[in-house]
Amino acid sequence: MSKKMVTVTLFLLLVIACALPFVLTSYRTFQATLVLVYAIALLGLNILTGYNGQISLGHGAFYAIGAYCAAILMDQAGVPYWGTIPIAAAVCLLVGFLFGLPALRLEGLYLALATFALAVSMPPILKSHLLDKWTGGVQGIVIMKPDPPAFLGAIGIKLNADQWLYFFSLAIAIVAFVIGWNLISGRVGRALIAIRDHHTAAEAMGIHTALYKSLAFGVSAMYTGVAGALGAIAVQFVAPDSFTVFLSITFLVGIVVGGLASLAGALYGALFIQFVPNIADELSKAAPWAVFGVFLIGSVYLMPTGVAGALRSLRARLGSGKLFPLSKEETVP
Amino acid sequence: MKRTLLAFAGSLVLAAALPALAQKKYDSGASDTEIKIGNTNPYSGPASAYGVIGKSIAAYLKMVNEKGGVNGRKINWISYDDGYSPPKTVEMARKLVEQDQVLFLYQTLGTPSNTAIQKYMNAHKVPQLHVATGASKWNDPKHYFWTMGWQPNYQDEAKVYAKHILDTKPDAKIAVLYQNDDYGKDYLQGFEEGLGAKKNMIVARASYEVSEPTVDSQILQLKASGANVFFNITTPKFAAQAIRAAYDSGWKPVHYLNNVSSSIGAVFTPAGLEKSAGVITTEYLKDPTSKAAANDPALRDFIAFMKKYYPDGDIADRSAIYGYTVAQALVQVLKQCGDNLTRENVMKQAAAMKGFRIDTLLSGITVTTGPDDYAPLQAVQLQRFNGKEYELFGKVISTDQ
User: Fold this and answer.
1) Full residue range of the structural domain in which residue A56 is found
2) Are B266 and B392 found together in one domain?
3) Which of A197, B93, B214, B307 is packed most tightly, with the most Cβ within 10 A?
4) CA triplet A158, A160, A163: central angle to 5 degrees?
5) Does some domain include residue A294?
6) Which of B87, B182, B211 sits opposite A242 (nearest CB)?
7) Could you say which of A25, A127, A239 has the minimum Cβ distance to residue B116?
8) Each residue of A174-204: pLDDT tens digit?
9) Which residues of chain B neighbour A283 with C-beta distances below 8 Å?
């Protein structure tokens, strides 16, 4: 795509995104907000797994930390909802970076297991008797839904709470994606990809692999934490049972289906994890996850590079005027 | 005179028309032909065993619809899977209220899930009726007018044990073992309130964390207190350990066990059936697998219902008869509402059940509510395990004021 086309597409997307809450019902707007939240989380995981090649089965834990940060700050300290986002980001950046340090020694499957342990231990830690003064134990914390700020009403813009939260999440998602894009398309992104593709070669080129890998962990956790905080505000409730290991696996499913190492893939993945389980539930009460499994297997077989990859090759074919896959002779130059 | 007559006739017509107008009142979700009711259940995930409740209710309502519905209206039961995950419950509850436009939510399952939607339901003034959880906080009509519990709650159950101890062993020395969380503390609080002024009968308290491997040391500590009555507030795995440890240590107290762990298969079998003999717990539902079932028309009906409408279901699964029972309470609320199917009237009628009897409840137990009493079931009967099965004993004990 030419640069001009990218700009036009992005502008159109923004217009559609801004129009959405005015044509959708409150409930659908709430779902759209959740899609944005998941997209931010998946973007974070994609930086780590897609671009840097470190597999994490524990991002649900960072999501939980972000969510609890927001809930505890709002519930106990009376911090306004918007103020909790940067704090959740900072806390998760730190926790992710620190977790990334020992994780440096672990490669591939071993890292996956270590992060899996983090995800498994998160609900019992949140339920723990030592923390229940803040976390509310098994009962969790109920938080109030933020109202649109007064100045909007003063200038004649009337939004309900769901619409306002959607725009709030949209703004954060845009900021997150712009930062992510800058990160990935520059020197840092090239370093991350080089480490993924060939660790030793990257080191030989003078890349400080240890620093970059822990940094990738930290930034990735930060994104997921911001998503967790936003998610908590949208759902208005946090409880340990919300952050089981299944959430972490769902995130991994999201980035693989959406497209590894693709920014747009995070959005496609978010749409998948938000809507496909609901469709599966409507198709079969008896075995919703079996239906989900069929969807998953189908999408992995039909789009092995994720939705983003499939769209990319579709565009390439349309551009070359050939809808059908190139035959073998044609691909060989 | 003519004018008076006319006015008189007019007022007559008005008087006749007014009740007709007043008769049919609908909020969204109700119409002349249909009543939409929403529900969330864990059909997948860690608590999916409870999904049987949602399926059993659906089967019962199918039977009701085949027989013509309630007051001529078919019940449209819309139940979604929330996987026992609170955020999913919030999403599904919003879908039911805003998208499907149900009249109210019924029997949403799980303490965290119901906590997650309680504020939303009350803010939107949509009933969250007969929730499927044992916590005592659902009986709070002052703060949460639109939320009502169903089953005997933990505190009420604990009061029944306290009452039985006061009646049968007024000089008892009581030891309590409880799980250190909201559930355990809920029971303990109810138990202490039940003992009232005699609270000092409790000579020893010990707690455990869910993360602990065993409760052996707590049992030895409680035994050392010299207590002759033991109230065991534990979840199934720890209940089995406690029963075994108490027996093996030679401690022979009168043993009360919370209903949470009353399953023979999950608790007494691993603990050892002979070691579990003598344990006392409570029940409020009839047992379709008991010997008495063959002679009980209520249970015969239930078994016939299962065969016809829920053939994949297991009759021995307590959740099946639970769903069958609570579905009858739903039908009763709708019957009482008549043609006034507004959300407010649903709550009003649900809070006006006076001694409503469902035949699968143990005999003598009825559903009673009031504007200040949002705890429909508050009576249970004690039962003792004889090493093979439960034997009911004593009278039905009610904690309803």
Assistant:
1) 25-244
2) yes
3) B93
4) 100
5) no
6) B87
7) A239
8) 999 999 999 999 999 999 999 999 989 999 9
9) none
